[in-house]
Amino acid sequence: MALDEQQRERGSDPVSIARLCKMLDASASSLMREITLLGDAVVGGERGPGLLRMQQEEGRWMVALTDAGRALLAAQARGTPTSHGTPR
């Protein structure tokens, strides 16, 4: 996952949406929609899984994996089934 790679390089610091957009060749609006769904926002009456956290720092939108997001990636790397679905 691009975010995980970037956070490892940066010592777990949040990564700017602009940097992720360039890496993923995606628009900021589409990326922010995806991040919202993977965060803990309530959408359609359902709270998201809380895998990502988005915040604004000095006018820039930043995103970071939460502990739950890191745990899910680690479980997927091990091939361990999780409550968020089985790994691919």
CATH superfamily caption: Winged helix-like DNA-binding domain superfamily/Winged helix DNA-binding domain
User: Total number of β-strand segments?
Assistant: 5
Question: Using only CA atoms, what is the Rg?
Answer: 13 Å
Question: Mind summarizing the main beta sheet?
Answer: 3 strands, antiparallel
Characterize the quaternary organization of these chains: single chain
Cα distance spanning the termini = 13 Å
Estimated helix fraction: 40-55%
Describe the structure in your own words:
It comes from Diaphorobacter ruginosibacter. InterPro entries: WH-like_DNA-bd_sf (IPR036388), WH_DNA-bd_sf (IPR036390). The protein is of the alpha+beta class. It has one domain: Winged helix-like DNA-binding domain superfamily/Winged helix DNA-binding domain (Arc Repressor Mutant, subunit A, Orthogonal Bundle). It is 44% helix and 20% strand. It is built from 4 helices and 5 strands, in the order αβααββββα. Strands 1-5-4 form a 3-stranded antiparallel beta sheet. The chain has a two-stranded antiparallel sheet with strand order 2-3. The longest helix has 12 residues, at 67-78. The protein is globular. The two termini are 13 Å apart.
Brief descriptors of the model:
88 residues; Arc Repressor Mutant, subunit A; two-stranded antiparallel ribbon; 4 helices; 5 strands; WH_DNA-bd_sf; MarR family transcriptional regulator; WH-like_DNA-bd_sf
